[in-house]
Write a structure and sequence with these properties.
Blueprint: E1 23-28, H1 34-50, E2 53-57, E3 67-73, H2 76-85, E4 89-94, H3 116-119, E5 125-129, H4 143-146, H5 149-162, E6 164-167, E7 174-176, H6 178-183, E8 189-191, H7 210-219, H8 230-237, H9 239-271, H10 277-283, E9 292-293, E10 304-305, H11 310-317, H12 322-352, H13 358-365, H14 369-374, E11 378-380, E12 387-389, H15 393-436, H16 453-487, H17 492-520, E13 527-528, E14 531-532, H18 550-584, H19 598-603, H20 612-629, H21 637-659, H22 673-696, H23 699-709, H24 720-724, E15 725-729, E16 744-748, H25 764-794, H26 800-831, H27 834-850
Antiparallel strand pairs: 1-3, 1-8, 2-3, 4-5, 6-7, 9-10, 11-12, 13-14, 15-16
Helix pairs in contact: 7-21, 8-9, 9-12, 9-21, 10-11, 12-22, 12-25, 15-16, 15-17, 16-17, 16-18, 17-18, 17-20, 17-22, 18-21, 20-21, 20-22, 22-25, 26-27
Length: 851
């Protein structure tokens, strides 16, 4: 054995320095571990029988003195056999189609480019599914490097997932799979190795360190303006992780356009600040100073002057203006362009990464080991004509019903929490108003000119709601995994889709329910003085909107939840893995580099986990909902999302490259179920933004007043405030201790005054405004949907050059295989006897006729 002091263990090879380590298993011996020891013995023996080569590092060689490491190498025969089974696509001819990617003025993008050997680490080839019997058909220069490291670890994990470790006495039922061995503690970890330390080049002068290149050119924050090396990411981590970063990068690029337009709309609101006629009336002593408003809660709330809401009125104008309507329409079109152009980008990646026919392979070949283990029944597969496990329909229905009931229970829990927050708002508002008021008539002029009970209640309620959201997220994630496991999905794709639907449905209700409440319910079912509506028949009066309008409250809610989620998410993603790794590797920090083995370094890192990539998608899709569903209330939302995503790309790259073990490579031809979720949210966003502009903002009432209720010849907003407030006679009854102070008070509504034949019924202006709101919704929705469908029709999902390349590749596969078979038969014909020659000639003739 090579001397420990002389031989560097920071290597990705066996002790012989020749065989590459494709996978590592680790375990710790327990005092009562005879059963686990027997499982390991049988499992490793079966791995050797399959053809894998194993080498064990004794616990005395590890830095903690108790962990064993089993290193696994897959020789060429095993790789070739399973590459044939999995239909891995490999090169057979150099790509001969000219690259027309050079565009005019391409020099403008030079500052954003990465070196060519980083962007395109491998030459471009035409590929075909590997066939072991035709290995000389493919371009095999070196068998050791023919299959990429990501392909090698994917093949090894496929074997590990299906190798048995126990057979019962009857011999008809196996227990199999590395996942079950990890769950029952037989092994503590299973992972492929990183190719080097992330801050140093590879020790092998003939081998490039992809991890080092990724960290240098991709994971550092100061590369934020550079393009992502997607081909290198795909080569090192596999297609599934590559497609995520391709989508995240494309989404971030598209956010730039939305952020620019949203910022322009905000600037427009700021520049028209002084043209805001209704805010001037609210702030003036002549109008707002002489209008006494009715109390906003029972008993403890006093009357207040309208001019005390001067600041909130000005703030509301920044977001509630004509530019907001334009931006809502623009975002409806932007989201369509984003989804359509992403389909084209995805189609190009499918071709470049050999994923065009992948979905069928995924469904037919890769059954989940858990499905094979738990389904004891067998039936004939009509396609493969082999017996395969299946789950009876009765069991499927029972499991689905239980799963659905669990999801509904948790959604009900979220709604109950939201109702609790609403009750908090109602109960605490009166307390804030009572504490903060200076006098009975100015109880909204509080501790400084900018703080109101509405603002204090809204901010504290939003913060409480955010805390509840984060707590429920932690709880539900475990529940969602449990009920998805209980359903026993057949394939990995089906498992991820089921989990995606459950988690998104929960997160949708969890994150957006409070925003939906403020946007579409708050202030809509209030009643009027003397006949207020109460929450579920309690003594808590339904909330009214902030005097500046509900839109500013929706903006506050959106900013707190969206910004809080993004900031907390980035801190958690970066800080938690770093702290855990720092603590876990504390014993090894003083070891010489040559003694701290490559497998121990990776073992001390965090596991990427089953939900690692899933959580990243979910985080971005929830953000996508914030910037589309409620963007009419906050045009700066895309700008905040853009800033977050620029950081997010580098944070995700940094933690994946430096803080996590190398994930097992997996294939994916698209972003999966997330695509349909994004499409659904894009359609829903048109509806929600139209309703926000119509019912949450004051845009429609202002336009109706200006065009229908202004004196002839005047086209301005003078008199709007007085027109939009109804009058209530206090003597008609008001549940408040200050009722003897005034005769009349005003409130936000369009109702006839006391003494009118339709006393306190809605006026005709109310119905005109309602009709205008409905007309606005119908017109905007139809216009945006027509434009959306026209744009979707105009932009083909697959670029024409990609179609040509796919057809060219399929043609070449047929042509080259035909020529290969003919040449092979000719060679055999020249080498065989006369009788064999007659038979081979007949075969050759038949082959030529068929082709």
């Amino acid at each position: 054995m090579i001397d420990k002091q002389q031989h560097s263990k920071d290597s990705v090879f066996f002790r012989d320095g020749e065989r590459m380590i494709d996978f590592v298993l680790s375990y710790v011996e327990d005092k009562d571990g005879e059963r686990k020891q027997e499982r390991r013995r049988l499992y490793e023996a079966n791995l050797v029988n399959v053809g894998l080569e194993l080498e064990t590092e004794d616990k005395s060689e590890s830095e903690d003195g108790k962990t064993f490491f089993v290193k696994i190498h897959a020789p060429w025969e095993v790789l070739a056999t399973y590459a044939d089974v999995l239909k891995v696509k490999v090169p057979f001819k150099a790509n001969d189609i000219p690259d027309n990617s050079d565009m005019p003025m391409n020099w403008l993008s030079t500052p954003f480019r990465l070196p060519e050997h980083i962007m395109h680490p491998e030459p471009d080839y035409f590929t075909a599914p590997f066939d072991k019997s035709k290995s000389d058909f493919f371009l095999i220069d070196d068998k050791e490097t023919f299959f990429s490291p990501s392909t090698r670890n994917r093949i090894v994990y496929y074997i590990l997932s299906r190798c048995s470790y126990y057979r019962d006495e009857c011999g008809d039922r196996d227990k199999k799979g590395i996942k079950r061995l990890l769950n029952n503690g037989t092994y503590t970890a299973a992972f492929p190795l990183h190719d080097s330390r992330y801050w140093t080049r590879s020790r092998d002068a003939n081998r490039e360190s992809d991890r080092y290149n990724l960290h240098k050119h991709w994971a550092r924050f100061f590369c934020f303006f550079k393009e992502q090396p997607l081909n290198l990411i795909r080569k090192y981590y596999g297609e599934k992780i590559g497609i995520y970063f391709a989508w995240l990068g494309f989404y971030t690029e598209m956010l730039l356009f939305a952020a620019i337009v949203g910022t322009i709309c905000f600037i427009y609101g700021f520049l028209t600040y002084d043209d805001n006629e209704w805010s001037k009336e609210i702030c003036s002593e002549e109008v707002g100073g002489n209008i006494v408003m009715c109390p906003l809660c029972d008993k403890k709330c006093g009357y207040w002057k309208l001019n005390t809401t001067c600041n909130s009125s000005w703030q509301s104008h920044l977001f509630d203006n004509v530019g907001t309507v334009f931006f809502a329409i623009f975002m409806g079109i932007w989201v369509t362009l984003f989804l359509e152009f992403w389909k084209r980008r995805q189609a190009r990646l499918e071709y470049e990464w050999d994923l065009v026919d992948f979905e069928e392979e995924q469904q037919q070949l890769q059954l989940r080991p858990e499905y094979e283990t738990k389904c004891t029944n067998r039936k004939l597969n009509r396609i493969t004509q082999e017996m395969e496990p299946y789950l009876p329909i009765t069991s499927q229905c029972a499991r689905t019903c239980l799963s659905g009931a669990t999801v509904l229970l948790w959604i009900s829990l979220i709604i109950a929490c939201i109702i609790g927050v609403i009750a908090y708002r109602l109960a605490v508002y009166a307390a804030f108003a009572s504490i903060m008021k200076d006098s009975a008539t100015t109880n909204l002029q509080v501790v400084g000119p900018y703080i109101t009970p509405q603002l204090a209640t809204s901010v504290t309620a939003s913060c409480i709601n955010f805390v509840i959201i984060m707590i429920l997220n932690l709880m539900y994630e475990k529940v969602a995994v449990w009920i998805t496991d209980m359903e026993i999905p057949k394939t990995h794709l089906e498992y991820e889709n089921k989990l995606t639907v459950k988690m998104f449905l929960f997160q949708f209700v969890n994150y957006y329910s409070s925003c939906f409440y403020v946007a579409f319910f708050k202030g809509k079912f209030v009643g009027y003085p003397g006949k207020y509506e109460y929450m579920f028949g309690s003594k808590l009066r339904n909330e009214e909107c902030d005097p500046g309008g509900c839109l500013i409250e929706l903006t506050t809610q959106l900013v707190i939840v969206m910004t809080g989620k993004q900031v907390w998410g980035n801190i958690q993603e970066a800080l938690v893995p770093w702290l855990m790794n720092w603590w876990g590797s504390r014993k090894a920090r003083n070891h010489p580099e040559s003694l701290y083995s490559r497998w121990e370094q990776d073992h001390d890192l965090q596991g990427f986990g089953q939900l690692g990539l899933f959580d990243e998608y979910l985080e971005m899709v929830i953000q996508f909902g914030f910037i589309t569903l409620f963007v009419a209330s906050f045009p700066l939302a895309p700008l905040l999302a853009l800033i977050n995503n620029i950081i997010e790309v580098r944070v995700d790259a940094w933690k994946l490259t430096t803080q996590f073990r190398r994930p097992v490579a997996a294939k994916a031809h698209s972003i999966g179920a997330w695509q349909e979720i994004l499409n659904g949210m894009a359609v829903l966003s048109v509806v929600t933004n139209a309703f926000i502009v119509a019912f949450t903002s004051d845009m429609i009432p202002r336009l109706v007043y200006m065009y229908a209720y202004q004196p002839e010849g005047e086209m301005n907003m003078k008199g709007y405030i007085n027109n939009s407030l109804s009058v209530f006679n206090i003597s008609n009854g008001l549940n408040n201790e200050y009722t003897n102070m005034f005769v009349l008070c005003r409130y936000r509504d369009y109702r006839y005054p006391s003494g009118h034949e339709k006393e306190y019924h809605h006026t005709m202006q109310f119905w005109h405004i309602l009709a205008a709101k409905l007309a606005f919704i119908i017109i905007v929705e139809h216009v945006v949907f027509v434009v959306k469908f026209f744009v979707a029709w105009m932009i083909p999902d697959v670029p024409s050059d990609v179609r040509a390349r796919v057809k060219r590749e399929r043609y070449l596969v047929q042509e080259y295989l035909h020529n290969y078979e003919v040449e092979k038969l000719k060679i055999q014909l020249s080498q065989n006897t006369h009788d064999d020659s007659i038979q081979l000639k007949a075969t050759l003739k038949k082959t030529l006729l068929i082709c």
